[in-house]
């Protein structure tokens, strides 16, 4: 069960990066092509963007450079993600970051000159080209926050330095941390980030689960001060940038590109912290009763409700679940799903140095790539469906939108992914009336879909908000402060029903999302939308599916509010969120009832 070196994993369980570059020499040739294109772009256009016509001419060349860079950046990133400990990958990543910093500085004049054009010329250019309308609209929106061209050039030159905290975080987490084996029941068991998050955290054996928890968090504790300092540097960089660009707060700066106001952000956190908490405490009590746990602790919250019923699923067997559950999305979507397996879009392997969790990378002009560490549990199928939701989103958006129009606001990014989780659950519920099976499916929805997105990530968001409030007040953070803030959020949400034992406060060290702006809260925002739309699909069928496909194809051409409205959801009110919270409560009530039925049938 211990993680193996990357060189020992099966080829069929890895992604095929040759679709990005057939060889390392092809990648190096692309870097030369980028250098040449950037140089020629600067020579041709610097100081010459004077009206709408010259702006559009430059934009076409700028977009072509962007499309050269995207596959190269994806290639570097994916290689690092598959094995952070590989020194060649580290050096390649550093070299690429250096090239991007230099190229960004060389081309920084472009957006500065666009921003200096009269508003009338920018609007004229928007009217003349749909492909660049959104990009130019954002130039207009950001115009008040643009700095002097020379300052912009300096900031661009420092971009790789500004990215350094995230790189340091990953190296500390995935390279320097070596987790010792732990003992339970007289046996020794290996531990690692992926093993803990993919296996031990949900192990039904309380002694083993808690022993793994202690060993895992004891190791995190050894690195808490370095990790906290790394995070503080990232936070201070964001605060300085927000101040330089004239934003009133870090929140305003980070929400600006999401096209979301503070009201939508705060509502998502406040309502869930206050109104979802009672439902989740009831769920924790149900877990405690079913497993006969004397004292419910933070280490026990992810234990499955019925672990003896958890089916083991191979990668090959996952195909039927994925194809059957998501076929409702139509033939084109189903073809994409098939291609993802046939063409090795997904990296399933478990190996040393691999990034934790799961993600989908969707480079424009190439197919999506998915990272997951397959453990063989049914949860993996839900995770894969989630990431294929991202893939399906950009697969559709890229087919119908230009490179600058394809990516939607971060606020909306998790709606298509969580939608697929809902479709998977709805499909499974249709396949059987057996109370135990239904309980297992609903427990999967609660534990995987809603716990992960509405609780885990939302508690991250509540903690993150407290961190940024300190930063806005001119303060800094260290391990002690971060531990105190995280513990406070956990204790407020779980109340007296769950003991937040020593180590739980270090959970802030596990999540890379903190280096990605105000990202954690968007999971619950996306799931709020997808919950409402999945109900429409259940009730209305094809018309609702067609509406949703139109949303996916729209990419970034509309705001989150407009995209949700296209799907029939009004997120300008709290009604969708309150309805989703009530739905979660009804699922937990149903779990309680099904548990009684299962117990009765077992006795009979």
From TrEMBL:
GO annotation (BP), single: peptide metabolic process
Cofactor(s) needed: Zn(2+)
Oligopeptidase F N-terminal domain residues: 113-179
Details of cofactor binding: Binds 1 zinc ion.
Pfam families assigned: Peptidase_M3, Peptidase_M3_N
Molecular functions (GO terms): metal ion binding; metalloendopeptidase activity
Gene3D superfamilies: Oligoendopeptidase f, C-terminal domain, Oligopeptidase f, N-terminal domain
Domain Peptidase M3A/M3B catalytic: start-end pairs: 203-581
Listed EC numbers: 3.4.24.-
Keywords of the record: Hydrolase, Metal-binding, Metalloprotease, Protease, Zinc
Xref: NCBIfam families: pepF (TIGR00181)
Role this protein plays: Has oligopeptidase activity and degrades a variety of small bioactive peptides.
Family annotation (PANTHER family): PROTEASE M3 THIMET OLIGOPEPTIDASE-RELATED (PTHR11804), SIMILAR TO OLIGOENDOPEPTIDASE (PTHR11804:SF45)
Protein name: Oligopeptidase F
Gene name of the record: pepF
């Amino acid at each position: 069960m211990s993680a193996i070196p990357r060189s020992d994993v099966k080829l069929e369980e890895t992604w095929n990066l040759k679709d990005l570059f057939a060889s390392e020499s092809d990648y190096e040739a692309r870097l030369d092509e980028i250098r040449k294109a950037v140089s020629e772009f600067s020579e041709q256009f610097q100081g010459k963007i004077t009206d709408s016509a010259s702006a559009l001419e430059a934009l076409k060349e700028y977009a072509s450079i962007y499309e050269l860079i995207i596959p190269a950046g994806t290639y570097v990133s994916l290689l690092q993600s598959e094995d952070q400990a590989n020194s060649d990958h580290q050096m390649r990543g550093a070299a690429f970051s250096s090239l991007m910093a230099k190229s960004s500085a060389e081309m920084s004049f472009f957006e500065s000159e666009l921003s200096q054009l009269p508003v009338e010329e920018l609007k004229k250019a928007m009217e003349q080209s749909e492909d660049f309308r959104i990009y130019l609209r954002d130039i207009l929106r950001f115009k008040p926050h643009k700095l002097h061209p020379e300052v912009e050039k300096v900031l661009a030159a420092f971009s790789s330095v500004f990215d350094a905290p995230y790189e340091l975080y990953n190296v500390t987490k995935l390279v320097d941390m070596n987790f010792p084996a732990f003992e339970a029941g007289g046996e020794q068991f290996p531990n690692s980030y992926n093993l803990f998050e993919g296996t031990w955290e949900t192990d039904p054996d309380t002694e083993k689960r808690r022993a793994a928890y202690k060993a895992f968090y004891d190791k995190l504790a050894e690195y808490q001060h370095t990790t906290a300092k790394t995070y503080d540097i990232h936070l201070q960089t964001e605060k300085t940038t927000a101040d330089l660009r004239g934003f009133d707060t870090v929140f305003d700066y980070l929400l600006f590109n999401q096209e979301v106001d503070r009201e939508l952000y705060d509502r998502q956190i406040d309502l869930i912290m206050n109104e979802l908490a009672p439902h989740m405490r009831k769920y924790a009590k149900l877990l405690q009763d079913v497993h006969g746990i004397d004292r419910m602790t933070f280490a026990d919250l992810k234990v499955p409700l019925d672990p003896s019923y958890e089916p083991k699923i191979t990668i090959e067997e996952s195909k039927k679940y994925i194809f059957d559950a998501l076929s409702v999305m139509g033939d084109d979507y189903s073809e994409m799903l098939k291609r993802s397996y046939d063409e090795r879009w997904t990296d399933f392997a478990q190996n040393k140095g691999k990034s934790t969790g799961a993600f989908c990378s969707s480079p424009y002009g190439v197919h999506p790539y998915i990272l997951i560490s397959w453990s063989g549990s049914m949860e993996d199928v839900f995770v894969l469906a989630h990431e294929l939701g991202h893939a399906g989103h950009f697969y559709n958006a890229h087919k119908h939108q230009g490179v600058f129009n394809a990516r939607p606001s971060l606020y909306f990014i998790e709606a298509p992914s969580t939608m697929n989780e809902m479709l998977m659950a709805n499909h499974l519920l249709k396949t059987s009336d057996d109370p135990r099976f239904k309980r297992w499916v609903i427990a999967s929805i609660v534990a995987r879909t809603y716990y992960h997105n509405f609780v885990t990530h939302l508690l991250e968001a509540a903690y993150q908000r407290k961190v940024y409030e300190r930063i806005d007040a001119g303060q800094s953070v260290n391990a002690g402060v971060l531990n105190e803030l995280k513990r406070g959020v956990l204790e407020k949400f779980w109340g007296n029903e769950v003991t937040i034992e020593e180590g739980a406060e270090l959970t802030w060290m596990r999540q890379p999302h903190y280096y990605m702006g105000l990202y954690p809260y968007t999971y619950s925002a996306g799931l709020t939308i997808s919950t409402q739309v999945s109900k429409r699909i259940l009730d209305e069928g094809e018309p609702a599916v067609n509406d949703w496909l139109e949303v996916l194809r729209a990419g970034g051409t509309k705001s989150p509010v407009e995209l949700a409205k296209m799907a029939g959801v009004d997120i300008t009110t709290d009604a969708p969120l309150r309805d989703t919270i009530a739905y979660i409560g009804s699922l937990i009530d149903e779990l309680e009832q099904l548990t009684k039925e299962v117990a009765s049938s077992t006795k009979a």
